[in-house]
Amino acid sequence: MSDVTATPAAHELSREQVARVDPSGQLGDVLALPDQLRDALWRAESAIMQDWDTSAGLVVAGMGGSAIGGALARAALGDHASRPIFVTRAYGIPAWTTPDTMVLCASYSGETEETLACYESAGALGAKRTVVTTGGRLAEMARADGVPVIPLPAGFQPRAAVAYMIVAALEVVALCGAGPRLTSEIDVAASHLEQLVTEWGPDAPEDSLAKDLARGLFGTTPVIAGAGLTVPIAYRWKTQINENAKQPCFSHELPELDHNELAGWEGAHEVGRFSAVFLDDSDATPRVKQRMDLTEQMIAGNAVASFRLETRGQTAIERVLSLVLLGDLVSIYLATLRGVDPGPVKVLDDLKAALAKL
Ligand code: PA5
Question: Rounded distance, CA 234 to CA 226, Å?
């Protein structure tokens, strides 16, 4: 990790300091990721679902915190996906959806209008459907239609249910024949995450990687770069920093960013305080690593701070979850440094309420 000119932030990032801004216990939900993975496995296995072989693959339809599970699941499968797996964040499902496609409609609340529209259009096209939700209209419609429902526990912010969403997507992948069942890998990954929770959590020393990183990003607009397996993780970091720390953050991916965003960094100092975070995968190809090295060097002089992080773990699911955990913790620490409550996202609720009146 290279820290060019990190902003010194004197604040302690202890459990007590986080608790001051976090009355709804978002930190606790992040620290419980290992247990949530195990609970999610149990829930997905207990849900009444059919083995539906869908030769055209899987579409995961959802928005925001409910869509990211599908994207992370796809990354964790990597080359083991044997059929197309596509994540849609929109009002509709792809035009190529057929009765031979499985559509997993993922909505924590069960009330998201885009996802409800996808549920209906999947039904109109005769696609196989599965739902993952806590309830709402989505659960009501699914029950009326005899569509299997994977139930989620209530009481989370949607984005904090990420373990449940990843496991549900992976379970449906296996059921529809789009990839192998990863049950034992997920179980091992949960134990691996427990070690990382200790290493990066609030009881770790003040100079732990997660706390140092939050201090380095404090007061800047982070720009997160992923490559391959880490692309959806970079997006998860962006959205967690947006929603938990309530501040701008952007993400992009290599190699594409070398063909546009790299040039934009030349003017970074003139328009703001931007920091760069590169999410490397320990299993990335040498060429991708060389590209990331060079890109990092070329950006570093124009960034307020620059960080290079690497996935931890053996399997792809361990590696994905390692950096998801780190990003989630960093976003809560950043919220603490900024003195903002990481829980409610009032502006998102206001927008949904305003749209509902139109
Ligand atoms: O994190 C959030 O709260 C949002 O991104 C929601 O996940 C998004 O608005 C969709 O809502 P839901 O997850 O209830 O379908």
Answer: 5
User: What separation in Å is there between the alpha carbon of 190 and the centre of ligand 1?
Assistant: 24
Per-residue pLDDT tens over the stretch 256-305: 999 999 999 999 999 999 999 999 999 999 999 999 999 999 999 999 99
Question: Can you tell me whether residue 66 is helix, strand or coil?
Answer: helix
Can you give the pTM of this predicted structure?
Answer: 0.96
Phi, psi of 222 (to 5 degrees): -75, 140
DSSP for 196-261, please give it: HHHHHSTTS-TTSHHHHHHHHHTTSEEEEEEEGGGHHHHHHHHHHHHHHH-S--EEEEETGGGGTH
Residues with CB under 6 A from ligand 1: 63-66, 107-109, 112, 115, 157-159, 243, 345, 348
Helix (H) or strand (E) holding 62: strand 58-62
- What is the residue with the minimal CA distance to atom 8 of ligand 1? 64
